[in-house]
């Protein structure tokens, strides 16, 4: 019985790629240095999978930024502003598209389906001159082959690529991206022909959009595309891979009828209904790649349940046509549990990271072939039994409090208009008030102090002193810049979710459980293993300290329950919404303690609310109901004069704008600049928004410093669709990843732009 891995984490066991990328961007190392680190990571991955017995090992899943940007490079689809004139695309053009440069902004970045991973959105139009401009897929296949590993090259499928793209600025809204399919397929034919010539016998085409609700003409595009590729694919075994959800019946029918396709991959963890489609009818003689090992969570596989599923499928597709696989790429999980030397032994026994999931896939394949590792299966059963019976998982008081939430919608008693009046009397803010989103740059020295404090090399007294000095520096800088509503800069926090999880019960933490979010940005999701509660106040000390340093309003900074949930590895033994309600109650306690501590503006970030929206429309209403309700629970008990902010970023929000309004926050700050101000279109189309709103005026994920004129132009565009008395001026997101040499001039220009427009509005009266 054969085994397959959809994809693998690319940062390296100790985030080697992250540090190599950042050194390269800072011009401390060369392109050759970066490529050597990259090659070492790839060879380690291939060797590991090969030694584990994996038959179908992927290549070309490694990327210096993301796999969609790699495809854009492969197709030569570089927007004109980057000055690309043809030939093989180098790292300078590649990273300019991802990060921008001194003269031009980056391309839009958005979430990869419903994950916390991001991709760079292709900008396409009728004038794009597609050409085979990056030979990375072929080069990596040859690289693996030279190491003695025959791999399955992986490409983002042509139809998914186009449907994940957007029309470039200036292109007619009515432009059909699928009309570019013939031009795109011409390049795919070149790539596939080269892969065949290099010796590839299998190829994997990822077409994840097949799990979405697609109209008939989009499904027809798959039929047409693969018919066009059929002769080129001849002689290859072709796997079309889907993941993240059930595949709809019509899409299943389309997929299993595609010309030239040998095998189909399905997520059978999040797509359990797909099993029924397979059992009801599967094409004879084709391979089924059964994704029974979860690629998006860190819990050990239930071997007995998976084996039962596989045995049932074996009866449908045949023993020699069933391949055991992961549900999706392991990119979305941590690298290797072996690096967790300090994790509680009992909790560790319940978990499996990417390296362990490779072992799980191969153990299931061997068991299905009659070579069951009895010791491994017994250990698996014991770990699952331990988790089910462990008293540390259940807290009766928490469960009762969450159950008592039923029957109320937890809205604040007064409407937002009256609350804003009460808040203005207290805060006395100018029109177009300026603020930032929370974090300020995290210097090497700051990280060192925090790291040494955790390692008990620095006393608590010295740690608090260092943090106080950093907060004072940030407060003084904001006052110098004349920002209206301040933040303390979050120097005590490495990560907005990890920080809270460390102080909540029911959470566990890893030392090296890093997961890539985008580019070199890695996050270390906490693990929610049990019922959640807040033993004591988490942020009041720091926020009150910061407020004592200034007479201006200081925001208390919290992460919302839905974002904590969506950015954690969540327990899979109860519904996600039940866990979210527990987190909401814990955050509610913190909000009320901040208010008692004299904090009059409290931001509860829900950056990941849109990210968690299910991929199928039929599931949207239920998710939005409990997600929005969870947010309202956190702040339903505060006074009218306490201003509640929330923040969202890097997702498409227009389709959930009514749910955002239903959150009933007093002010929302929201990413806007990098997505070509698409957010504003919803207001142009007549949606009325009565609360405060701050669409971001500049992109913080790029080192580029926008001029005050550019920012003023953005604000004027906002004023064309939003009332001046509700508009705020702020960056897109937190400033943690930037340097002070970038932050100071950018914020100065932002404040100058706000003041300029205030004076223009005053003189126009």
Distance between termini? 78 Å
| β-strand number | 22
**What is the strand content?**
5-15%
Shape: globular
Runs in which pLDDT lies below 50 for 5 or more consecutive residues are: none
CATH class of the largest domain: Alpha Beta
CATH topology of the largest domain: TIM Barrel
- Class per helix and strand makeup: alpha/beta
| Mean pLDDT figure | 95
What is the helix fraction of residues, given as a range? 40-55%
> How many structurally independent domains?
2
Task: Set down the secondary structure blueprint.
Blueprint: E1 2-4, H1 16-25, H2 31-52, E2 57-59, H3 67-74, H4 91-99, E3 109-111, E4 118-120, E5 123-124, H5 136-146, E6 151-156, H6 158-163, E7 166-167, H7 181-198, E8 202-206, H8 216-233, E9 237-241, H9 249-255, E10 263-267, H10 274-280, E11 287-293, H11 303-317, E12 322-326, H12 345-349, H13 354-368, H14 374-389, H15 396-403, H16 416-427, H17 444-454, H18 460-481, H19 498-501, E13 505-508, E14 515-518, E15 521-523, E16 527-533, H20 540-547, E17 555-559, H21 561-566, E18 569-570, H22 576-596, E19 601-605, H23 620-635, E20 643-648, H24 657-662, E21 667-670, H25 678-684, E22 692-695, H26 708-719, H27 740-764
Parallel strand pairs: 1-12, 2-6, 5-7, 6-8, 8-9, 9-10, 10-11, 11-12, 16-18, 17-19, 19-20, 20-21, 21-22
Antiparallel strand pairs: 3-4, 13-16, 14-15
Pathway: Amino-acid biosynthesis; L-methionine biosynthesis via de novo pathway; L-methionine from L-homocysteine (MetE route): step 1/1
EC number: 2.1.1.14
InterPro entries: Cbl-indep_Met_Synth_N, Cobalamin-indep_Met_synthase, Met_Synth_C/arc, UROD/MetE-like_sf
């Amino acid at each position: 019985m054969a085994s397959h891995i959809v994809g693998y984490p690319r940062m390296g066991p100790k985030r080697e790629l992250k540090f190599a990328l950042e050194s390269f961007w800072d011009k401390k190392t060369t392109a050759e240095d970066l490529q050597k680190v990259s090659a070492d990571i790839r060879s380690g991955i291939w060797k590991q999978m090969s030694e584990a017995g994996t038959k179908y090992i992927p290549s070309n899943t490694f990327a210096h930024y993301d796999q969609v940007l790699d495809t854009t490079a492969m197709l030569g689809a570089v927007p004109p502003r980057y000055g690309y004139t043809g030939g093989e695309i180098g790292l300078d053009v590649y990273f300019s598209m991802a990060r921008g440069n001194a003269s031009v902004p980056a391309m839009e970045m958005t979430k990869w389906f419903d994950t916390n991973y991001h991709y760079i959105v292709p900008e396409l139009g009728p004038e794009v001159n597609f050409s085979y401009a990056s030979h990375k897929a072929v080069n990596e296949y040859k690289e693996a082959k030279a190491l003695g590993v025959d791999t399955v090259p992986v490409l983002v499928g042509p139809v998914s690529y186009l449907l994940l793209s957007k029309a470039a600025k200036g292109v007619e809204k009515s432009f059909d991206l699928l009309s570019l399919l013939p031009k795109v397929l011409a390049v795919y034919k070149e790539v596939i022909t080269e892969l065949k010539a290099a010796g590839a016998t299998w190829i994997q085409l990822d077409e994840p959009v097949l799990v979405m609700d697609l109209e008939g003409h989009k499904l027809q595009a798959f039929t047409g595309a693969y018919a066009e590729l059929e002769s080129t694919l001849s002689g290859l075994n072709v796997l079309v891979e889907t993941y993240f959800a059930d595949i709809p019946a019509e899409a299943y029918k389309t997929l299993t009828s595609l010309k030239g396709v040998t095998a189909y991959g399905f997520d059978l963890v999040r797509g359990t209904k797909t099993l029924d489609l397979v059992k009801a009818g599967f094409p004879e003689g084709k391979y089924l790649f059964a994704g029974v090992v979860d690629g998006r969570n860190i819990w050990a596989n239930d071997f007995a349940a998976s084996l039962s599923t596989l045995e049932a499928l074996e009866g449908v597709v045949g023993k020699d046509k069933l391949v055991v696989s992961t549900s999706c790429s392991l990119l979305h999980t941590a690298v290797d549990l072996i690096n967790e030397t300090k994790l509680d032994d009992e909790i560790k026994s319940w978990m499996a990271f990417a390296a362990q999931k490779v072992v799980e896939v191969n153990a299931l394949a061997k068991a299905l072939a009659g070579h069951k590792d009895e010791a491994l299966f017994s250990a698996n059963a014991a770990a699952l039994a331990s988790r089910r019976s462990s008293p540390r998982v259940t807290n009766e008081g928490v469960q009762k409090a969450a159950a008592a939430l039923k029957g109320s919608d937890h809205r604040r008693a007064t409407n937002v208009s009256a609350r804003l009046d009460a808040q203005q009397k207290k805060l006395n803010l100018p029109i177009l008030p300026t603020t930032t989103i929370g974090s300020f740059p995290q210097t090497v020295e700051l990280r060192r102090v925090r790291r040494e404090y955790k390692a008990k090399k620095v006393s608590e007294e010295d740690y608090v002193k260092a943090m106080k000095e950093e907060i004072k520096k940030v407060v003084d800088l904001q006052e110098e810049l004349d920002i209206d509503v301040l933040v303390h800069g979050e120097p005590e926090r490495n990560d907005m979710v990890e920080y809270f999880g460390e102080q909540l019960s029911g959470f566990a933490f890893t030392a090296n459980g890093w997961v890539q979010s985008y580019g070199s940005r890695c996050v270390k999701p906490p693990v929610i293993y049990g019922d959640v509660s807040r033993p004591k106040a988490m942020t009041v000390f720091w926020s009150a300290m910061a407020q004592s340093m200034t007479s201006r309003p200081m925001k208390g900074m919290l992460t919302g329950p839905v974002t904590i949930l969506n950015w954690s590895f969540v327990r899979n033994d109860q519904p996600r919404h039940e866990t979210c309600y527990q987190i909401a109650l814990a955050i509610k306690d913190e909000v009320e303690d901040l208010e008692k501590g004299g904090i009059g503006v409290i931001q509860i970030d829900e950056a990941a609310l849109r990210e968690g929206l299910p991929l199928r429309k039929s599931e949207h209403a239920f998710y939005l109901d409990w997600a929005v309700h969870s947010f309202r629970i956190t702040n339903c008990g505060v006074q009218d004069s306490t201003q509640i902010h929330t923040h969202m970023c890097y997702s498409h929000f227009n389709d959930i704008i009514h749910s955002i309004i239903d959150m009933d926050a007093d002010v929302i700050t929201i990413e806007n600049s990098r997505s070509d101000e698409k957010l504003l279109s919803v207001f142009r189309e007549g949606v009325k928004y009565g609360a405060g709103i701050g669409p971001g005026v500049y992109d913080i994920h790029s080192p580029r410093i926008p001029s005050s004129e550019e920012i003023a132009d953005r604000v004027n565009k906002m004023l064309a669709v939003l009332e001046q008395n509700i508009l705020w001026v702020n960056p897109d997101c937190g400033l943690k990843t930037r340097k002070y040499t970038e932050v100071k001039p950018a914020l100065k220009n932002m404040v100058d732009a706000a003041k300029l427009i205030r004076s223009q509005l005053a003189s126009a009266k």
